[in-house]
Specification:
Elements lengths: L2 E7 L8 E7 L7 E10 L2 H8 L14 E8 L11 E4 L10 E5 L4 E2 L6 H21 L7 E4 L5 H12 L3 E6 L2 H9 L4 E4 L5 H8 L5 E6 L6 H7 E9 L13 H5 L4 E3 L3 H4 L3 H17 L6 E6 L3 H9 L6 E5 L1
Parallel strand pairs: 8-9, 8-11, 9-10, 11-12, 12-13, 14-15
Antiparallel strand pairs: 1-2, 3-4, 3-6, 3-15, 4-5, 5-7
Helix pairs in contact: 2-3, 2-9, 5-6
Length: about 325
């Protein structure tokens, strides 16, 4: 094969900015391999890249996550061979394609029993859940936590995992269907944020104390609510902007609301080294293989359906994980 299909973004914009193009098959350079994709992941960060909220040098490929087999190795690559089953979830963007060239030291070997679709649909989300639950705030058995968008891609995985670790998980959802799904996947309680006050319900469920930690990937729409749900000296973990960027605020606000803490973590800072990456991957693959987490791949798209996939993800019409099959 001398060419392949790959999405390119030439200018930031809506899903119409996605251009599916036929381009030469990329050749790996020193320290790189080319992965022939079996399945590709869909993540909200892809939308941030497309719209320019997280700016990239243009034109650019899109997509950070995929699974497949190694089909070519560049010079100075050791420890890998053609045909190895692998997955990745790091840059440079370009996973929305039949194949992609990535750094060999950012590849992860797929354990037996982990399918391509599961890896592609969940690796970025699973590693995110791993650092959030095990490192940003090490979840303790018996504690109560609040997770916004509990039926979303990261939420469904993390709520199950936190529950398996012994936490009591309160999740927020936007519909009865998502409430049912969240309850089946780890949440002890769900709050339908369109119908009831999240703060009032959290306080009722915690005897007025609030929770020690809130995990919030929604951003602008939930920021104030999240702070008001925290217990004294609680931690606000803001790890996404699905509704838009969090507004500017004074640090004094944190003092006024109970000497709160806030962090804005990213996977890149928790998986900077090879050792850190393998630690998180080990936690995630073990959670999947042990059955602690059930992976729900609820949407499957063809490569030429990526614009529709972006639209449905942005409009909160998806649940669980999604996968793109080239």
């Amino acid at each position: 094969m001398t060419e392949h299909r790959a999405y390119r973004v030439h200018q930031p914009g809506d899903e119409n900015a996605l251009s599916l193009e036929h381009t030469p098959v990329p050749e790996p350079r020193a320290g790189q391999v080319r992965v022939r994709h079996k399945a590709i992941g869909l993540n909200f960060i892809d939308i941030y890249h497309r719209t320019g909220l997280y700016p990239l040098d243009l034109p650019t490929g899109l997509g950070l996550e995929a699974a497949g087999v190694i089909e070519a190795l560049g010079p100075d690559v050791h420890g890998w061979k053609k045909g190895d089953r692998v997955a990745y979830c790091s840059g440079p963007p370009g996973a929305y394609a039949d194949s992609h060239v990535v750094a060999a030291d950012r590849l992860l070997a797929l354990p037996d029993g982990v399918e391509y679709e599961v890896a592609a649909a969940t690796l970025l989300k699973g590693l995110t859940a791993a650092y959030l639950l095990h490192q940003t705030h090490p979840v303790q058995a018996g504690e109560t936590l609040l997770w916004h968008a509990a039926a979303g891609g990261v939420g469904l995985l993390a709520c199950q995992w936190a529950s398996h670790m012994g936490a009591r998980v309160i999740g927020t959802v936007g519909s009865d269907a998502k409430a049912k799904l969240a309850l089946a996947r780890g949440c002890a309680e769900v709050i339908r944020y369109r119908e009831e006050s999240v703060v009032d319900r959290v306080m009722a469920l915690t005897d007025g104390k609030g929770v020690p930690v809130v995990y919030d990937s929604v951003g602008k729409d939930t920021f104030d609510v999240s702070l008001d749900c925290l217990a004294r000296r609680g931690l606000m973990v803001s790890f996404g902007n699905a509704s838009g960027a969090v507004p500017e605020f004074s640090p004094l606000l944190l003092a006024q609301k109970g000497s709160l803490f806030i962090t804005r973590p990213t996977l890149g800072h928790y998986a900077t080294t090879r050792e850190e990456l393998e630690t998180l991957a080990g936690l995630w693959f073990e959670a999947v293989l042990s059955g602690a987490v059930t992976v729900d791949i609820n949407q499957t798209y063809r490569l030429d359906e990526v614009p529709r996939a972006h639209r449905e993800l942005a409009n909160r019409q998806t649940t669980g994980a999604s996968v793109i099959i080239p």
